[in-house]
Amino acid sequence: MNIKELSKWADDQVFHQTGNRLSSLQKSILEGVLQYQDFCEIKDNNGYSYDHIKREGAKLWKLLSEAFKEDIKQSNVRSILENKAASTIYNFVNSLSSNTISNSQVNICRNKYQSLEDIQNQSSYSQNPTPRIDLTKAPELNYKYGRNSEISTLKEWILENHTRLITIYGLSGIGKTALTLKLISEIQTEFDYIIYRSLDNLPKLITLKNELKQFFCQSQNPLPEIIDYFRLSRCLVIIDDVDNIFQFGNLAGQYLTEYKDYSKFFQQIATSSHQSCLILISSEKPPDIETLEIENKHTKTLYLQGLGEDAKAIFKEKGLKDEDKWDELIKLYQGHPGWLNIIILTIIEFFNGKVSLFLTDKDDLFLGDIEALLENHLERLSELENKVINWLATQNKPIGIFQKPADIELSNARFLQIIQSLTRRCLVEKVLGEEGVKFQLNSLFKAYLNIK
Ligand SMILES: Nc1ncnc2c1ncn2[C@@H]1O[C@H](COP(=O)(O)OP(=O)(O)OP(=O)(O)O)[C@@H](O)[C@H]1O
Ligand SMILES: [Mg+2]
Questions:
Q1: Residue among 211, 289, 206 at smallest CA distance from 243
Q2: Which residues lie below 8 Å from residue 81, measured CB to CB, with a gap of 6+?
Q3: Near ion ligand 2, which residues have CB within 5 Å?
Q4: 164 C-alpha vs ligand 1 centroid, how far in Å?
Q5: Is there a contact between 60 and 29 (Cβ–Cβ < 8 Å)?
Q6: Looking at domain 381-451, which CATH architecture does it have?
Q7: What is the pLDDT of residues 212-248, one digit of tens each?
Q8: Is 376 touching ligand 1 by the criterion CB < 6 Å?
Q9: Is 172 in the pocket of ligand 1 (CB under 6 A)?
Q10: Among the four residues 125, 317, 379, 388, which has the most C-beta atoms within 10 Å?
Q11: Mean per-residue pLDDT for 65-78?
């Protein structure tokens, strides 16, 4: 069934169930959404205001929900209608004598690889909406606090905007994996398949693809490419620790030679039409994804920063004292949960939980075991990045982009490239002031480089 046929079939079902037909605008909205267009595109194609399309869309979902006795919305309409159509026609086929219709005549396929056998497999799937989930490779992480705004941004991107490729990046230990696992727990029913894999052990792309295919084809016939599964079903794939396939000693986000094909794969997911989502997690923002984000509206990037106020819930749970000093502690350690966990242990062990005692010496920032975590970031830097970051550590104020170090041979263009790379690694932050954009080194890295 193509989109027009599916929309006509849905209209017939609505008429059969409710006695009403879809209006021509409702049909256009339905067909647009079935082709993964968002309301902005549908509005442009139909010449109505966004609000009007939104209102008509809401009426459409209500009508379809009534007719199909399911909670139908923009995010799930395609998978529900396809599954309903597949099982209806499967029942119809079964009701005929077995030889009267050959497989090739049963052309209700969602794509060219689907056969009657596929439909039989899927008809059982359509009666069991529980998603198939594989989080066996995911770490078990403590996550109780905050991140409400990040979660709602990600939900909006995934469920409303149908974003195909999302990159979550931020410093190591900032909570990228924890946030993603929390997100999964909140949106899992919107997907047919959810799988988490890490690139910790540097799997070649072909190995990863085979693992994904094995997972997807448990309840259906094997398909040639991952993108085929992405089209056929709502799949959510999480690839963590993507920074592992980037080079050491080069600028940020440069793929190791044997892993360059990952970039093409990510690009294919972002630019092909499908109903799934790939989430990449990395401590470096890859430049190829940055370019994609500019060119392709189905690609989004989330820069994850500290927990802010929400970190106080961790202090409370751990029984820290001196609540009036908690803001200071959060500010010093940037609300970074990984760093704060280390500091909390020290405060409990050596200061009996008293934050005010720990903060007595204001001039000497305690780093302790955080140093090893900072070093993990620094050892990835190129030679020039190293020189520039050491120079940045000596600066008392944010620097302008042409304010390069006098003792290092660097063209303006090269200096800009180095600052850009350090920004992609989350080590250098942009500061917006009256004099425009300035840059400064993350204060903890600055403190560490100055005592190193
Ligand atoms: N919102 C949160 N509330 C409480 N603890 C958190 C939160 N987010 C993360 N943590 C804790 O912080 C630590 C680091 O989190 P996580 O492993 O998710 O970081 P990460 O960014 O994925 O790090 P890496 O890049 O090293 O994989 C974990 O111990 C986790 O339990
Ligand atoms: Mg992680």
A1: 289
A2: 6, 9, 10, 34, 64, 68
A3: 177
A4: 24
A5: yes
A6: Orthogonal Bundle (1.10)
A7: 999 998 766 788 899 999 998 999 999 999 999 999 9
A8: no
A9: yes
A10: 388
A11: 88
